[in-house]
TrEMBL record:
This is Peroxiredoxin. It comes from Halomonas rhizosphaerae. InterPro entries: DsrEFH-like. Residues 1-24 form the signal peptide. The keyword Hydrolase does not apply. It comes from the Bacteria. Keywords: Signal.
């Protein structure tokens, strides 16, 4: 499958709320899930959107996701946050437009663990109570452990 087709399918799945849990295991049994750490710091709408679309594709393929939101990307974790614009999806995607925070919510509903960086709240106008339900504040020690674990790939956007 080409990268364009894969990304288009991932965007379509994200836009229509397709769940990785809905995918059947072709081996008939439960295989151990792999893990990934996605670190998103960019305030760029397209970068945030692509990080969420790729995270969705990984989750659909059975990856247990942990997402760390830092700097401007931490705003995605704030309850009620809305991006100024939506991302236009390719013409082959019937959804038309999606927002990174919408995809993030879907990832969380499907089991992704989401945290903001430990320094996000003290350096913003937000408090822990402003975060979406289920979003935590990352502890540097446990984040460093994940980053050092050779079995957990780290993707940074």
């Amino acid at each position: 499958m080409t990268i364009t087709k894969t990304l288009t399918l991932a965007a379509a799945a994200a836009a229509i709320g397709c769940s990785g849990a809905a995918m059947a295991d072709s081996h008939g049994g439960e295989e151990p899930q792999d893990q990934a750490l996605v670190i998103l710091t960019s305030g760029s709408l397209q970068t945030q959107g692509m990080a969420m679309i790729l995270s969705n594709a990984m989750q659909q393929q059975g990856t247990d996701l942990h997402i760390l939101l830092c700097d401007a990307a931490g705003d995605l974790a704030v309850q009620g946050y809305a991006s100024a614009e939506a991302i236009n999806t390719p013409p082959s995607n019937p959804a038309g437009q999606v927002k990174p925070e919408g995809i993030l919510g879907m990832l969380m509903e499907n089991g992704a663990q989401v945290d903001v960086c430990a320094i996000y709240l003290p350096n913003s106008d937000h408090e822990e109570g402003d975060l979406r339900e289920g979003v935590g504040v990352a502890a540097p020690g446990s984040m460093a452990e994940m980053m050092r674990d050779p079995s957990i790939p780290v993707y940074s956007f």
